[in-house]
Every structure is written in C-alpha cells, then in structure tokens.
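Example record for the data management plan.
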Amino acid sequence: MRFPPLALRFTEPVSRLDHGGYIWVKLAASYLQLFHIPPTISNDLPLYSRIVRGTNPDKKGDEKMLKQIAVLAAPAALSMFLSVALLRADGPDEISFNLAANPKFAQCLGSDSYNPPTAKVTVSRGTANDVMVVELRNFKPGAAFDLFTIERTNLKAEGLVDPAFTGSFGLAWYQSDIHVGDDGKAEAVVKSILVDGIFGFDADPIPGSVTGAPLVPPTHTFHVGFWFDKPEDAAACGFDPSKPTPFNSEHKAGPNAMISLPDAVTGQGPLLTVSPVGAVNKATR
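Corresponding structural encoding:
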C-alpha cells in the first residue's frame, strides 16, 4: 500500500501564501514547507504526499497566518511524517544490481571481446511508484532489446544455467524497449510499482472452477531481464529464428539476452527487498 495524498481543511479560506506558492507550518522551533496545489474558492487545500524542511516564510503576514492554522495542520503533518517513516522502514530507498548474460547467447551481445557488455539496474523507491533505470554498455551498435519483469530466472545465483529450469520464465510483464546507440550504450527508464510490490494476475476464473479461482492468482515478477528484439540477432549463437519467443510487441522476439540472478539464500529476484511473506501480504491487500 502506498502513501496517499492528504487534504487539510481550514476553518477560513487561505488567502495568503508565500511567493513560491507554498504554505508553511511551524512545528516546535522549525518550519515545514508543504507543497500544495494552487487553492481555489474552496476551503479544502489538497497537498501532495511530500513534506520538505524549509527555512521560514518570507512575510510577517504569512507568519500570522501560520498561527491561525498551525493547530489544525500540525497533527496532519505529523501523521504524514509517521506514515512516510513506516513506508521507508519496509526496505531500502534505492537498490542496484547487475544483469547476467545468458551464457549461450553472450557472444551475440557485444562487438569488443576486451570490453564485455554490462547491464546495471538501479531502482529508486517512491511513495506512489518507483523508478527503474537500466543502463547498457559495450553492446553492438544498433541492437534492440525488449525489457520485462518476470517471475523466474533461468540462472543460478552464481550466474550458471540452472539445470532445474523447465523453460518457462513464468509470468512476464512488458516494461520497455531498449535501443543501443552508435556508442554501444543504451538506457531505459521505467516508472511503475516495482520494489517489493510488482505483481500481476488473471482474474478470469478457471473453467469449471466451483470457487471461481482465477486462472493466474496474484504473482510477483521480482526478476528483470531483456530479450533480443530480432531473432536473427542471436542466430549466430545457435538460436533458430523460425522459432521465435513471445517477448516483444509482435510476439516474435529472440531469446533471453540478459537476466537477473536469484538471491543465494531465498531464491527470490532482486526487486524483493523485504521478507517474501511481507511481499505476499502487499500483493493481496
């Protein structure tokens, strides 16, 4: 569950704010600057779910206004701080991990044997959603890939192919295209629910089910990987272009190029930073 926007209600219209368009609330010896949407004729003042520490208002008149609303606003502001603190306690604010090349197709990724291709993933946790940045380096210029979050990986924690992998990556969630430039670099940015909470499901019931159980129950996709957009780009490494995979918009992609590794202890993907039980609870409420 993410922290929702908050609305404060005042007993009289708020007619004076500082020049920056902010409302200030004094708590103890310091001021809090609350972002707000420009007020209308209503007495309801919507606020974004964020508070930043400021210096002080720029007018005496504004400070007078503070005295009138501080008693009303302070409890709500404190509540916001507590809610954010609880949210942040769930896991780290930012995570970073590298993707590993699919061993069979690694030779089809780059053009310089002295500088192997790398893919770094950085995810910043937000209040309403998260931001994931995927950075590629040393890839073949002009290459194209399709980025997904997936339920499972085909590699073990040390980067070797998992002999227990049955061929299915499980639930897959299409996130972005990746296009490599002439310098061998690329970047993809995804804004979504990612850290500890990303999941999908198919609400259609299983045919003949008495209970109406869904075809696909809520399922997390804590792994990250990308696929060759063109099957031909992996042909030199042994991939059969006449047997494409469904990992692009036309459902005619190549094989997996790079993918995340599971945790050596839990076996979970790197987008999970809290206990698996906590993540399941988030997905089902």
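Summary line stored alongside the record: The chain has two domains: 6-88, 94-284.
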